[in-house]
Amino acid sequence: MAFQAGGPRPAPRPVPATPGAQAYLQDYATLLEAVSFPSFVVDHRWDVLLANGAFRTLFRGIGPHPTAMPADNFLRFVLFHPDASTVLGDHESSWCLPMLAHFADALERYGHDPALQAVRRDIAQDPLMEAAYRQGLPHWMRAVGEEAVEHDGAVRPLHHPDPRRGVTDCRVVVETPRSLERLGCTRLTLVLRETRRPAQRPARAARTASHLRVVSGTD
Questions:
Q1: What are the 10-residue block averages of pLDDT along the chain, 219 residues in total?
Q2: Which of 24, 125, 214, 215 could potentially form a cystine with 131 if both were Cys, beta carbons 3.0 to 4.6 Å apart?
Q3: Which CATH code is given to the segment(s) 3-196?
C-alpha cells in the first residue's frame, strides 16, 4: 500500500486498525494506481500512507536519506532532502515556503504530536532554516497572500526524470473524500502540464544540513 521511491516499502504506515478502514485504504490504493499523474495520500504529519506508480517514477532518482525520503514523509523530503531541488523546481519559494506555512499550521493544531515536534527541532538546529521559519516565513506570507500558501490549485515547477516531460509545471489538486477525511488523511495529485519550460535543470545540491536561504526582506 505505501511505497518508497523505486519500489514497495515492506510495512505500510500506521492507519486506523479497523477492518473497514484497512479495506477502504487497500481499495483506494488500487484507485491511485489507475491515475496517470503522481498522486499520494498523507496524514496530518505528512507521512505518506499511499502513493502510486507515477509518484514513484517522479522521484526515482532521489538518493537515500535516513529521514526524508519522498514516499516516507513528504514534509521532511521538501525541507531536508538535499536532492529535493533536483525534482521540485524553484524549490525554496514554490515548495519549501508553502510547506513551512502548512507545517506551522499543523504545529498549531497538533502541537503535542512527537513527529511534528521532531521536525521543529530539526528546523531549529539549522540557523538558516530557523531564520527562514521565524522571520522569512511571516514576511513571505504577508507579501504573497493566502493563495500562494494554499496547495490546492497552485501551479508549481517540476523537473521530471522522463525527458518527454523534462522541465515542466504541475498543478497541485487536493481531493479528500469524506472517508479519507474521517481517517485524518489528505490526497494530493500533481497534474503534469503539457507546456515545457526551458531546460534549466539545477545541479545536484551539496549534502548539507540545509538548502534554504534566508528570505530576502525579512523583518
A1: 33 61 93 97 96 97 96 97 97 93 94 95 94 91 81 94 93 95 95 74 46 48
A2: 214
A3: 3.30.450
Residue type, 131: A
Total-model pTM? 0.83
CB 68 within 8 A of CB 49: no
